[in-house]
Design brief:
The complex is a heterotrimer of chains A (312), B (276) and C (436). Chain A is mainly α. Chain A has a domain of 192 residues: MetI-like fold (Orthogonal Bundle). Chain A is built from twelve helices and two strands. In chain A, helix 1 crosses helix 12 and helix 4 crosses helix 7. Chain B starts with a helix and ends with a helix. Chain C is built from 21 helices and 14 strands. In chain C, helix 11 crosses helix 20 and helix 20 runs antiparallel to helix 21. Classes of the chains: A mainly alpha (312), B mainly alpha (276), C alpha/beta (436). Chains in contact: A-B, A-C, B-C. At the A-B interface, helix 1, helix 3, helix 4, helix 5 and helix 7 of A face helix 1, helix 5, helix 6, helix 7 and helix 8 of B.
Amino acid sequence: MSTRTEAKPRVEPSARPRAVGRRGSLTHPARTGLLLVTPAVLFVAVFVLVPLGFALVISLTNWPLIGTVEFSGVKNYTAIVSDAAFAKSVLYTLLYTVIVTGPILVLGYALAVLVRRKRRGATLLRTMFFLPFVVGLSTLSFVTVLEAQPDSGAINIVLRSLGITDGTTAWLVDGPLATGLICVLVIWGVSGLTMMLLMAGMQAIPREFYESSELDGAGWWRQEWEITIPVLRPTIAMSVIISVVGSLLAFTQFYILTRGGPGTDTTTVVQYIYNRAFVQLQLGAATALSIVLVVVVGLVTAAQFWLLREKD
Amino acid sequence: MKLKNILYVVGGGGAFLVFAIPLLWALFRSIQPNDVIVAAPDRSTFFQLTWDNFRTLIEGPGNLMRAVGNSLVVAVSTAVLTAVLATFAGYGFARFRFRSGPLLFALVVVSMMIPFQAILTPLYLEMNVLRLTDSLLGLVLFYTTVNLPFGVFVMRNSFSSVPVELEDSAHVDGCGTLRMIGSVLRPLVTPGAATVALYAFLAAWTEFLGALTFLTKDELYTLPVALVNVQAGAYGEVNFGSLVAGSVIAMIPCIVLYVGLQRFYVTGLATGAVKG
Amino acid sequence: MLTRRKFLGLTAAASAAAAVPGCSSVLPEPDVQAAGFGQDATGTVQVWCRAATQTGLTDLVKKFNASQDRLTVELTPVLDAQYVTKLATAIRGRSVPDLVDIDDINSMLFIYRDAFTDLTEPLQSLDFRDKLSPGHLRLATKDDRAFGVPYLADNSMFWFNTELCDRAEVDPDEAIKSFDNLIDAARKLRKLGDDIYAWSFPANSPGALGFVVQPMIWAADTDLIKGPVGAQSGDIVGNDVVQQMLELHRQLWVDGLVPRANFSDDASRWGSDFRAGKIGIFPSNYAVVVSSSDEAFQKKVAPKLLSGPNGGAAFFDGGDNMCIPRGAQNASGAWEFVRFALDLPQQIDLPAGGYTPVRSDAATPEFAKKFPLATLPLERISEGYAPTTLSYNLLYNQPDGPWLQMFRRAVFDGELEAAMTEAQSNFDRILAQGQA
């Protein structure tokens, strides 16, 4: 790698008209560039790529708690097919993802609509709506544990005073109830991010776009539907993808609130893999599952990119 | 027009309450005595407030204040390290042409797609070999890596939007790379860097699974892990008062930093997402 | 420059590194028969303990370090849930502590794979050897060799609220003679008032539940697991005692003899109802009943051993064993610390922290005066028991484990047969996996 060799100009997607056509330049010598990026790349290589490779290796072995490691080929992978508990966790995670994705988007969009203009109090509102996300799901979950307790938790207090229940519901010990509670918590706590992303996008739309429809006398809803949303498509797509990936990989709130219980009724995929690795101590099987997870998440993301791509 | 205003006030006000009340409630709960928190509500005792929960946190078993300290050290270090490395890498990718550039950038971006939860086990084994488990340094390195891809992404965009002329003229004046970043380009990329630092801080401060896995020594626990221990009654009976008080303490830096540095945060997100 | 070649190279190196530890995973055993073993040792002793028994160990270490200046013990508390993984990883990384104070039911997991030191000889030289809790020792014994010694005990008992029993005309000794008697007693106690319940069990905490319910099966000389370690399977379907135990609890639930809150009780506030005087019969341990209550209440309780369908007696030998991992640097120092921990003064003081001694000769008259409620397990020390198996944690301590599933399905859903069949196959599966 030298700084002087003349090479054909490389066209980069974000190339500026004055892009340096050859490798390196006086102001930006190639070696300096490499030096600048090396630390970051090194981190990624050591802490992401190497473990990934290692995971592949381990998944082909029987890696017991104590004792000799034995090569076992694809046994761990074939075992996944008949793993009923894994299938259950996958279905549960998919169900959860399906339930929360829509509301997060809708709520985020509604909040963005509320705060995108420079009205009085808009900044305050925006701050407030984003605050739960800033606080973080782990902290929010701890507080929720307390308030979901039967008799003494706020949720039950409110329900009892409204006369809806007698306030003894043990939310966290019942699969459907716990799931419902977690979904509400997540929608509430995560929609702020969607709001921010969409708002930024909305604010970037030039006023001219709306002028012709305003002359037509189009109402707010039509404007939204025919102009804002189509233009916002890439941003919406990005929001959805981030949200879906986050849901597929959900762990923290489930671990804190129910530990995956009762039984395995609220066990997500990541929780299942974690249990396999750190409780059942079957590392070979757990890494095989992890690899499968990586592949599936990648496929789902790619599928979304394709589905939500610009159609024109 | 009038309708729009009414909708705004009603909708905005309602939504505000929906978002504010749970957080304010948590605050209120943290100053209720533990016995009141765990019992069915009784009008006579409900409003007897106390600082006991916080006192127990500081003095009681489980040494939660040490956990707070650990979390602070880890989060701040992560924020700084991530911001610095992301800034360097962002600059390198944005402005410099070198043969492996595109490949390395792709590598970094692809790793954003790999959920760390999936590589947790082998990463644990690897960190163990490197003697980085049961070490706050190890945790910092891990968190930095997790936040780097996004950081590099944001910083690259940040640098891309700086006019080349600025650097050219500075170079003519004999400016080296470090000074270039440090003084010439700094004002323009600070928003981006601040965003990256902020994001990294928040991620490290509330991160749970990694800390749970890589730390098994009592005195190293970060706040989320310590709170899970409180919740699991690892230090005796579950003390919900401590749990809530600990949660409130966990919330404070997040809120303070966020509100205080809001300018950078919002701009940064916009830069990263829209121009990306 | 990170080329594809280099990346593959890194992976290859990593896998080579992964393969190396597999070569020999058994560490060298310290020589416990060397002259002067356990005496005049110097240096530091690295000790790990469970977070659950941390306070007791911290005090012990302080006392030990203060009592002599040749050795310094450094204590590392480890969260119970991470203990096994952490120790296993340390063994694989060939960097082990000198002494582990380990949950006794986890001992065999390591002993089975030759990870701990054979302590039979040093143990023989202890003059109180035959006073040590046989239940704890059994958990650390393989092929008649001892690979660990008991340190502290956490035992389960029936705790009767004698005041309530008097009011309901219930005689605890009569009650424990059979399950039928227990139900009768329970009904009488329940009649005392709307907010007085006969019994209380934590039906959402697998560990605590197993701790108090299993002895009721052992009292009839049977268990949920059968077979020698390494070739075990479940003994549930066809086991009448298991069925009777489930029927007893189902009846307690259906007849409203236990509080509704038991359904979701995860033992996070275990005993709060008993200590409030609302429960007549409370299976639990010393720490929950005695250590957490005041003297006035303590005068109103009486412990009895847990019993089975037709009487008998048993109790759970929970607690810690102390074991020296193979590959320990300072095994001699570790053994000195162990001897200190087993000395009478230290053992006698254990109930102050909520635990019970592991030597029956600790029940001196002074002990009986100071801790009257802690003498029962020592008097009947040979009736303590805990199952020796490689999969205790997975079977009994996990929320999604077969033990809790079976209990809840049988007691709350009333599907006893289905619950037992399901548990049998799950027990078999988990045991087989652990023995592979």
